[in-house]
Every structure is written in structure tokens, then in C-alpha cells.
Amino acid sequence: MGVAWSDIAGARAIVETPLAGRHVEPSQGTHFFRNIMAARVGYVTAEAVDRPWLDAAWQARGGDPGAQVRHLRFDEPLAIHLDGKRGAAAIVKPR
Hints:
The protein is α+β, with helices and mostly antiparallel strands. The protein has one domain (about 5-90). The chain is about 25% helix and about 20% strand. The protein has helices spanning about 5-10, 30-40, 50-60; strands at about 15, 40-45, 80-85, 90. The strands form 2 sheets. A two-stranded parallel sheet has the order 1-2. The chain has a two-stranded antiparallel ribbon with strand order 3-4. β1, α2 and β2 (about 40-45) form a beta-alpha-beta unit. The termini are far apart.
């Protein structure tokens, strides 16, 4: 299962995380990265995440617990700080 451009159009940032202990292969493809760079979309792969919080948010929105791809939207935005020169990022949950 993949993600179509229409699924992420309008996003300000994309954060990929592992599911159920699975390793995340970062999204690849020159067209994908050219498109998100042109749209000034931040992109982060995150291994250290608050999995219980994400799982609860997914299930609260009626998401299938066995889904391989999850697209989460929150009532309040996440604060995502990116430093492309150092290759560092911080993601802050809403209160």
C-alpha cells in the first residue's frame, strides 16, 4: 500500500515512523523529493516516538489497528522544528 500525492498535498510536514516494531524505509524517489522540496514540505523519519500516544490518536479516529499506512491529522497542530544543515528535528505534541 502506498501514499498518493493527493494524500499529502497541502501538508506542511511529513513524519514517517515505524509501525509495530517494523523498520521504516524512508520514502524514496527523485520525483517525490523534488515535489516536496518545491512545495517546501518538511520531511522527517522518526524512530523515537510516543507510540502509545500515536496509537491512541489513530484509534480515537476509528483507524484500523492493523493498517500498514496511517494518515493522522490532529485538532491542534504539532510543532515541528527542522534544522536541515545539522540533520536534526524536534517534534512537539500539542497540549
